[in-house]
Amino acid sequence: MKLDILAFGAHPDDVELGAGATIAKEISLGKKVGIVDLTRGELGTRGTAEIRDAEAKAAAESLGVVVRENLELADGFFQNNSESQLLVIEMIRKYRPEVVLCNAIRDRHIDHGKGSALVSEACFLSGLIKIETIDAQGATQQAWRPKQVYHYIQWENITPDFVVNVSGFLAHKEAAILAYGSQFFNPDSKAPQTPISSKNFLDSVKYRAQDLGRLIGVAAAEGFTVERPVAVEQLDHLI
Q1: Per-residue pLDDT tens digits for 137-158
Q2: Could you tell me the domains of the chain?
């Protein structure tokens, strides 16, 4: 299956938090979108890997993505090495996306920066014909390099290189995030508190989108950083 967009996250919920509204909008425009989680988030303070698996499935169904896979790398301990890169390359060659979304270039959680570099480098390596990978049926995969690699923004307030108008899609993002019931704010929960389990954090996701929207004169936006200059065909294509 060829996808238009393949979004990677170090943990289940990374993609939803960073780019959930953008993904919902792209799907509404007819794009085929998939998600690949690098880990099962098994080191998370709240919940379990099994709970996170079920939550990730529900979030994917909420957004309408056509496929979601998990590479089952070690949460907290995976490395940007050849073994991990080859697993990511296999996903890129399997789905042949035009655009790849991946973790923030730097962030509070150490896995986010590692995941960002891992996926970015794998996108380049995936285009090299002398790197051989095999699909699930035992066939040799063809080299494929995405046209664009964009990094969404997470905990840290990184200045975006461009923003996407997601007005009308914040509710889709919120529904996908709330699928992770074990992770986020729940006044009745007896689980230990974490930096992302507060009401303030959940509110901040909405506030950020509204503030980025304010800056471009729309209701809401999501920001991304790029690896090469942003190009437009003509000046009036900017909003």
Answers
A1: 999 999 999 999 999 999 999 9
A2: 5-229 (3.40.50.10320)
